[in-house]
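Async update (no meeting this week)

Hi team, since we skipped the sync, here's where things stand on the single-chain job. The sequence we agreed to prioritize is pasted below, unchanged from the tracker. I ran it this morning and attached the output directly underneath so nobody has to dig for it. Comments welcome in thread, and please keep replies under the output.
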Amino acid sequence: MYLEIAMFAYFVALFLTIRDIRIFKRTGYLSYRKGALKGLAASSLILLGAISIEAKPDLGLLIVLFGLMVNRKGVREPVFTNAGTLDRFLGKTDYVKSKTLKRRN
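Output:
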């Protein structure tokens, strides 16, 4: 059961990372790039925890929990105006990427 919990956490972190990459490519907001990089680090840490569950389940789940804490994204720019639930879930945005990267003020 521990391994299933860890793998579910891994796939959720990976999905959110891919979603952040897609939003960053469409909008160019640096907060989504930062979130994608944090997601890559977190998913690597979660995978390490999932691998270590075989040896020590408690320590492995602790590493998975720490990886989920690393995956916190923070405040983001609003990128969805008219998008439905499925579009928000998949990361479709209404904005088009500009020539320069945008920083949040």
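Quick observations from my side:
The mean pLDDT is 89.
The radius of gyration is 16 Å.
Reply here if anything looks off.
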